[in-house]
Amino acid sequence: MSSLSRDEVAHVAGLARIHLSDEELDTFAGQLDSIVGFVASVNEAAADDIPPMSHPLPLTNVTRPDEVRPSLTADEALSGAPASEQQRFLVPRILSED
């Protein structure tokens, strides 16, 4: 298992623009080293005959065919609206056009 140095942790913290004290660098060096070891053990467990997957259960896309069906007319859809204009819902302006 590789051992991460304080300098490597400081470099990563610098890339992330995170200021760490000397005590935090020591703490995080050990924690990050453990995380890297855990990831390495997962990589060792993966077998070549098992395909990579994003979810443990098979997923199917639940969709319905796109078919034309009877629906409301524009006037029926707008009949309950507080305000409408040009067969559209009329809502208060929230953005200026500047």
From TrEMBL:
<dbReference type="GO" id="GO:0006450">
    <property type="term" value="P:regulation of translational fidelity"/>
</dbReference>
<dbReference type="Pfam" id="PF02686">
    <property type="entry name" value="GatC"/>
</dbReference>
<dbReference type="InterPro" id="IPR036113">
    <property type="entry name" value="Asp/Glu-ADT_sf_sub_c"/>
</dbReference>
<comment type="subunit">
    <text>Heterotrimer of A, B and C subunits.</text>
</comment>
<dbReference type="InterPro" id="IPR003837">
    <property type="entry name" value="GatC"/>
</dbReference>
<keyword id="KW-0808">Transferase</keyword>
<dbReference type="GO" id="GO:0070681">
    <property type="term" value="P:glutaminyl-tRNAGln biosynthesis via transamidation"/>
</dbReference>
<comment type="function">
    <text>Allows the formation of correctly charged Asn-tRNA(Asn) or Gln-tRNA(Gln) through the transamidation of misacylated Asp-tRNA(Asn) or Glu-tRNA(Gln) in organisms which lack either or both of asparaginyl-tRNA or glutaminyl-tRNA synthetases. The reaction takes place in the presence of glutamine and ATP through an activated phospho-Asp-tRNA(Asn) or phospho-Glu-tRNA(Gln).</text>
</comment>
<keyword id="KW-0436">Ligase</keyword>
<dbReference type="GO" id="GO:0016740">
    <property type="term" value="F:transferase activity"/>
</dbReference>
<keyword id="KW-0547">Nucleotide-binding</keyword>
<comment type="similarity">
    <text>Belongs to the GatC family.</text>
</comment>
<dbReference type="GO" id="GO:0005524">
    <property type="term" value="F:ATP binding"/>
</dbReference>
<keyword id="KW-0648">Protein biosynthesis</keyword>
<protein>
    <recommendedName>
        <fullName>Aspartyl/glutamyl-tRNA(Asn/Gln) amidotransferase subunit C</fullName>
        <ecNumber>6.3.5.-</ecNumber>
    </recommendedName>
</protein>
<dbReference type="GO" id="GO:0006412">
    <property type="term" value="P:translation"/>
</dbReference>
<keyword id="KW-0067">ATP-binding</keyword>
<dbReference type="GO" id="GO:0050567">
    <property type="term" value="F:glutaminyl-tRNA synthase (glutamine-hydrolyzing) activity"/>
</dbReference>
